[in-house]
Structures are given as structure tokens and as C-alpha cells.
Write the C-alpha cells for this entry.
Amino acid sequence: MERIVSECEEISNYKLDRIYALNNWFVYVAIAVLLAEALLIFIPIIKKNDKFVSEIKKKSKLLSKQNEELKESEEKFRFIAENTSDGIMVFEIDRITFTSPSYDKILGLPHDKVISRTIDDIINAIHPEDRDRVVKLYEDYEKVRKESFIYEYKMMHPKGHYIWREDKTKLIYDEKGGVIKAVILAHDISKRKNFEAKRKEREQMLSSLFDATSDMIAVLDVVDIDKYTFAFFNKTYEVKTGVNVHEYKGKFLHEKIKGAELEALLKTYRQCILTKEPVRWLLIHDYPAGRLTCDATAIPIFDSTGKCTRIVFSAYDLTEKNAHLQTIEDHSKQLKDIAWIQSHIVRAPLAKILGIINLISSKSDSKDYQKALLPALKASAHELDEAIRDIVSKAIDTDNK
């Protein structure tokens, strides 16, 4: 009995071990199935994650390169900004974020004072004559989203005087069209403006002198050896010639003067340019005001490089002088006629009268003889009277002329 019980227990234990083993096998199979399903699910995710990580790495590398390039660009910008004579200012929204040393120098202020300036400070520093124009310029360009523009204006210096500035501005807009940044390249042009003012003053002074002279003066710009444009005429030229100078200014010489006269002028101007010496000639020309005879001179003007840039035409009007000389010549001829009359025509009747008087004197006792000579004496007296009248008439004509 005990043996049977022992065998049954062995069989039961064996079956129980088999059941445990089978159960473990099912657990392993289940785990394997679950792992297989997990792999099927996560492998695509892992692959996507690897791709995403790879893209992130590429973008990170690109961003790192861009940051290096940006840093290098900023270093170059700062180097240029710190070494250029032009001032650079960056204004973002409502404040200054950067100024170069040259910009601070133009304003005549320390950097901390410049960087703390507001938009109102900047506007108030503009000269009252230019302020509205500059503000309106910005407003108009912002409306049309213009990116770059150049303008000139006067700005107050801390020392109390105004300086001239030329600003080149670049506006940067956001997606909505609002300005988010303004980069301004400022240049002090006070010297240039002062030079222009002095040059204008000199030109006005020269123009006044030219207008005051009695000579006719015209200035031609030299385009080429045979190409000239009219640039300036003085008042005397306009009055004496009757030319409408506004129709001539800016026009080519060959547009207003034709034919043989043009060829003569071109030859003269070419000569004075090549010889670098003034050329004089007698000019006879029909102008709207009439024919003028002039003592003309062409004077070449050269720049610092030796290039002829202008021809100054100067003409002294000889028309009245020639007329006066002609009048004197006519008077001289009339005086010669009078002298000839006196020396020939007057002397003949006078000689007759003197001869008759001598005859009368020699025959003073003969009244018949004297009576016979009276008609001859009377005729000679009339002849002398006519000669004297002719002399008087010519003298009156000479005085009237």
C-alpha cells in the first residue's frame, strides 16, 4: 500500500512538474509574442526617431555654421563701423541699439549720451527749416515700404552751430509692413556745403561783374574738341544781340549756328584749345537786334588735369565806334571840300574883285571907265556870295551830323 501511495505521489509530482514546465513554456511563448509585437510597433518609431535625430543634428550643425558666419559678419561689421569715417547708427523700434565711434564724433557727444537719445531728441536736433521735410520723407517712404533713400539736412551740434549731414537710410520691415529697424549711414558734408556756398557766392560775384561790363560775354562748356554747349550769357550779351538766352542755354553750338560761320567758330575754338592761348578776330554777325561788328576773343579754361573744360567768348562792340569813325571821316571829307572851296572857288571871284578895285583905283579920274567896271564887280561879288553860302551850308550839315 505504501508503495502504491509512493508511486502515485511520484506520478502526481511528475505531472505537476510537467504542468509547471508547460505553464512556464506558455509564459515564455507569451513573452516572446509580446516582444515580437512590441518590436513590430516600435521599430518604425525608432527608425523615425533616428531620422528625426539625424535631421536635428544636421540642422544643429547648419545653425552652428550660420551662427559662426553671423558672428564673423558681426565682427566684420564692427571692424568696418569702427574704422570708417562715416557714422553708423542702428535704431530699433524706439531706441538706439548701436552707434559707431565715427557717428558719436559727428554728433560731438560721448557714446553714453548718443546711445540714450530718443527719437524726439533726434528730430529736435534737426534744423527747423529741414525738420518737417525729413519727418515727412520718412512717413512717405514708410507708406510705400521703400527700403533705401538718401537725404541732406542741417543738424544742431552741441557747440551751438549747425552741421550739414547726408544720411543713407535702410529701413527693415516686419511681415505687417511696420518698421522694426533703421540702419543709418551718416556723413558730415559741412565742408562740401561750405565750399558750394562759397563757389555760388563767387559765381554770383562774377555774374555781377560780367553783367556790369560793357563787353558781351558767353561761356561754353567743352564736350569734345568740336562739341560745345552754351552755359552762360551776361546781360550785355542779351541786350546788345536781342538773343533769348534761355533758348540757347544747354543747347549745342551746332544747333544754333550753321554753315560757314559755324565752321569758322569751330576752327577758332579748336585753335585756342590746341595752342592754350586766347584767339582774337573781327566778328561780323547778324543778330535779332541787328548786325554787329565786334572785336571778339576766345579764351580757353583748363582744369587741374590740363583738360579744356570751358571757352569764354568775349566781344567788344565796334558797331557804334565804327559808325562814329565813319561820321568823323564824313566830317573830314566835308572839311576837305570846304577847304578846297576856300582855296579855289572863293579865291577866283575874290581875285577878280581885287583886280577890278585896282583898275578903278588906277583910273580914278575917269568916271565912264569906273562905270563900265561896275557890272563886272557886281558879278564877282555875287559869285563870291554863292561860294560863301555853299561853305556855310556844308558847315551846317557837318554840325548836324
